[in-house]
Amino acid sequence: MEAVSAAQIIFIVVALLTVATTFLVVTVRNLIHAALWLVATLFGIAVIFVLLDAGFMATVQIVLYIGAIAILIVFAVMLTRRVMQDVGPQSNENWWLGTIVAAVFFAAISTLLWSIRWPALPGAVVGDTVLALGRSLVDPNQYVIPFEVASVMLIIALIGSITLALPGKQSE
Amino acid sequence: MVPLSWYLTFAAALFALGLYAVLARKNAVAILMGVEIMLNAVIVNLVAFWRYGNPSDIAGQAFAVIVFAVAAAEAAVGLALIISIYRRRETVMAEQIDLMKW
Amino acid sequence: MDFFSLLAWLIPVPPLLSFFIIILFTNQDRRLSHLVALGAIGLSLLFSWTVVFRALGTHHFAEHPIAVSVAWLPTGDSVFRMGVAVDPLTVVMLFFVPLACFLIILYSVGYSNYGKPLDQRDLPGSPPHHGVEPMYSRFFAFLSLFAGAMLLLTVADNLLLLFFGWEIMGLCSYLLIGFWYGRNYDDSNQITPRQAAVKAFITTRFADVIMLIGIVYLYSEAGTLNFREIFFSADIMNHLLHTPSLIGGLAAAHLIGLLIFVGTVGKSAQFPLHVWLPDAMEGPTPVSAMIHAAAMVSAGVYMIVRMFPLLSAGGGVHGGSPTMTVMAFIGGFTALFAATIALAQNDVKRVLAYSTISQLGYMVAALGIGAYVAAAFHLMTHAFFKALLFMGSGSIIHGVEHGMHHTNEKLDPQDMLNMGGLAKRMPTTYWTFVVGGLSLAGFPFVTAGFWSKDEILADAFAHGHWWVFVVLLISAFLTAFYTMRQISLTFLGDARTESAAKAHESAWTMTLPLVVLSFFAVLAGYVGVHMDFPVLGDMLGNNPFEHFVVGTLPHHLDGFEFNWTPVLFSVLVGIGGLGLGWLIYGRRPLSAGQPDPLVARLGPIHKLLVGKYFLDEFYNFALVRPAKWVSEVVSFLWIDRVIIDGVLHTIARFTMRIGAGARWFDKWGINYAPDKLSDGIRASGYSFRVIQTGRVQDYLLITLTAVIAVSGVLFLMLR
User: Fold this and answer.
1) Which CATH class name applies to B4-96?
2) Alpha-carbon gap: B7 to the closest alpha carbon of chain C (Å)
3) Cβ separation of B76 and A64 shorter than 8 Å?
4) How far apart are CA C573 and CA C567, in angstroms?
5) What percent of chain B clears pLDDT 90, i.e. is strictly above it?
6) Alpha-carbon distance C687 to nearest alpha carbon in chain A (angstroms)
7) Residue A153 and residue B73: Cβ atoms within 8 Å?
8) What number of C-beta contacts closer than 8 Å exist between A and B?
9) Complex prediction ipTM
10) Is residue A92 part of a domain?
């Protein structure tokens, strides 16, 4: 086995940290803490995107996930704070089954992954992917329709969320 | 040089942890967090396959962008549902939301 | 469509409309109801007479009749056209039908005791005691419908439209004869209005069905039902005449003629279907007048007059075709037969009913010997004097009922033996009744009845129909006799009961029509005096009636030479009959309790006559009881109970066997496994429902476990 390169070292460190923070996200009792650890996890994933030469993805990861979704989750946690149980078990009675399923899943996937010969990293330098991505999303020959469908879906989700979150008449 | 399998293993680990959160956590917000982690794992996979496949073919990233959009929508709707349920039933515990019980 | 065609269309419309207006809107208001009915028939009268006088003022009207029609029913490659036509014959009808209807409706106002308060004892469906008729508005609605139907029939240009009017009248006669449907008699043998209505309806229905068959047959052979199209087309007439009919030996024209004639036999109460008409007297008197004078029975004669070219086809114009022979026979027989029955009737209306049958027989016999013009003439004059007589009798009955109201006697107000001396009490009714009676009897040279009857007799004489001549002569004699008998019994001498002594004259609405009609009952005869009759023929315009009406026919109808012999006979029988009646009844009027002198003189024959030759009993015995027996024994016991029920029960038993087998098979063969399966599914459902916790996470856990398990299995297998 050849020597461990700098990129590999960086990957291993980032990956381990990210997995560790993720573990904390799914296990800590205090949900505020979990949300904060989630931010850390998302940030770690952004770093991984950078390692994959996907700078735009990393930017989106930070802006969208950390800037929007994570904050949203923090707000949700705070809004439902009154019934949050910081004491007592945070897992249901089937947690061990969940653990087994997750573990078996991971084991199976890993076994599969490691049994396959994956292609090596292509040598070609990746050019301006942002421009290509932008063009592809508005190109009728490529992804304009999924893009438009996604935008419509976002609008619907937005309206649906507002409708759902609005106080109902009965609850007044 | 980082082999593709490392990225995939990493994504699988994140996915499994997210899965555990979805299966085992009591709090609906925590379950939602698990879902977000799983989605992120998927995006990692997509981007990794893009990078190790043909980088000039932008499909992987385009797909990842769509998944981002879905994740954002899912988070918005999911949290709105949680707020709504909380308002009606004064709880966010998934095991207490069992109106569909036999 | 010119003005007169439009009027011809409109003639039947007002009374038909008035029926609906009265039924739907004005039925609460008596005054409004009779005003609507009178206004409507008045309008029809106006329209009719406008058309009539226009027609009379037109030269050669017969060649240019009013005829309009619309395409009504497309029938394959042709179109059935409905329309109205006014030719000279229609003009004659339009002259007297609306007038008679108008007077009858006016008369009904008084007859129904308009203006008196409603008597609390009176129930709908029974004759009023002394108050106003409880179903006053309904009565006028029915009369309007009747009049409208008659006018529709009159102006119809085809046999189908005529049949429509014909059937509406059938319905109306049912409704009106049974108008006092609640009336019952102590004597259970006396026919009630209900029964009379049913009897009239069924009898005429029987005839109408046969007539309808004739109409259908005619349409299938001729391709049209329009009168002029058929009669004026030599092709169609030839075709009808030379097509053999379904019954051997008869041409289609003859069979159709006979079938259609059966309709007249029913409607105009000819032997042997005359039985309904005397019983129709159970209806209110205006109805009797309507049925016997203006409308229904005239319609029957009108129809055969109308169809004369077809009926006479194949024979000479003066008889000879098979249809005409039958008509002459039936008409002559009916005339004599009914006249003899009328001799012995004591009911004032029944005498008139039989006299009507007899006079209709005259007309039918006249047509049977080809006396076309005379038949139409007698139809008109008869309508006038018979309407007059019926309304007069209604007035008499009314007067006697009024007397009964004062004396509280219980007697039959229609029985002439209970009357007598009414001449002094009811002068207007008396004099008009005498005029009508003399006209019916054929009092020479003055009355309309004489001229029309004489015309028929002269025609029979001139063309050598001897037996018809003799038969009609005898019946004319009898007619004169029973008319005198009726007048004497009713009006002359002293009152035989208290009620008759207390009778009083009827209201002006009842007597005015009598006066008007008596006017026509005299004058209507002068239009048809034979042109060669000394002095009068010239003076009265050489028989304008004949010249006018004869144009209706497609071929020329020869007149006949004037001859004194039939006139002499005519005068003789008229005067003779009246004289004999005077000798027996008039000279020494009956006193109270004295029996009818005829009883002693005729002996057993009188019984036969009173019993109307026991024809009703015969029908009852020969038709009604067998029908009941067939329905009770054959139909019910044998066919229904044994054959039909037997077959049905066998089928039912067989079916139940099959059903039981199928049920066994179903239970053990088909259902067993699925039943057990469903039981098992239900049981397993009970067992497995514990996993339905309602929690999303549990479901997801199970799903994922399954996914992983299946994936593992697949992975291991595929490797």
Assistant:
1) mainly alpha
2) 22
3) no
4) 10
5) 25
6) 20
7) yes
8) 268
9) 0.88
10) no
